Amino acid sequence: MTSVIFMGTPEFSVPILKGLVANDYEIKGVVTQPDKKVGRKQTLTKTPVKVAAESLGLPIFQPVKLSRSPEVEELIQMHADLIVTAAYGQFLPTKFLNSVKIAAINVHGSLLPKYRGGAPIQYSLINGDTETGITIMEMVKEMDAGDIYAQEAIKIADNDTTGSIFAKLSIVGRDLLLQTLPQIIADPSKKTPQDASKVVFSPNISKAQEEIKLTMTATQANNLIRGLNPDPGAYILVDGKRLKVWQAAVSSTTTDLPAGSLVANNNCFAISMAKKTVLELKEIQPAGKKRMDVKSFLNGQGGKFKVGDQIAK
Hints:
Layout: E1 3-8, H1 14-22, E2 26-31, E3 36-38, E4 43-45, H2 48-56, E5 60-61, H3 70-76, E6 82-86, H4 94-97, E7 103-108, E8 114-116, H5 120-126, E9 131-138, E10 148-155, H6 162-186, E11 200-201, H7 218-227, E12 234-238, E13 241-250, E14 262-264, E15 269-272, E16 278-286, E17 292-293, H8 294-299
Parallel strand pairs: 1-2, 1-6, 2-5, 6-7, 8-11
Antiparallel strand pairs: 3-4, 7-9, 9-10, 12-13, 13-16, 14-15, 15-16, 16-17
Helix pairs in contact: 1-2, 1-6, 5-7
């Protein structure tokens, strides 16, 4: 039986871990990020991978920092056949990568060399790409720079968000990994180097990137909203306050009103954007409140916003 150390953290990783178990790979250990406090009540919450590993009765490791931790030394001594990572969230020490007998493999959520880094799915949506995919790759010291074992592309639909793409790619990643592992085990040298001239990076999303700016067209703003849904969410400043936007649409109409003006407010909260485009807000979340549809939001405003008003900054 081929032994595996599995490393992952979010929901994306869970089908991949379960697929390995269901296909009789021996999971020597599951490494995931530490439990963290979540929400207003700061409830200590397990990662989705930890929950899955507990249900499967697998050994769990949660070092705050893997490098130089007692846990990494224990993992090295396992001398597993494979390391399989899927959205783990930390760099892996070279001595750990080199400790396995066959290969250290990553299930990466992009078509490398495009979108190396921690937010490949988010950037594919923010940039308006029409496809994304999964890369099964060798792990090396440099981030996402390893040779490629296999790739599979999927189309990005107009209504896709980062959440929906994560869900789709977790299944694609599981199936492609299980399909590719036998050939890796048989001949780990059979792989293709990445084209360094086509590398694009996708660093983690910054706080500054969360703001919908009036210099954006409606399409650019809508892509940002889709890319930051479900986390952390994009916001626009309306009446000087942050208004998170969870769902929007690009209007087929144009306007001569300055960017940031209210174009319509009759069961449709539409704001003018750059280049005369119009963004229709569908699902929003005022600061300190729950998500709501636009109709519920407008009902609570008492006619405060008038068509033509400069409401966004």
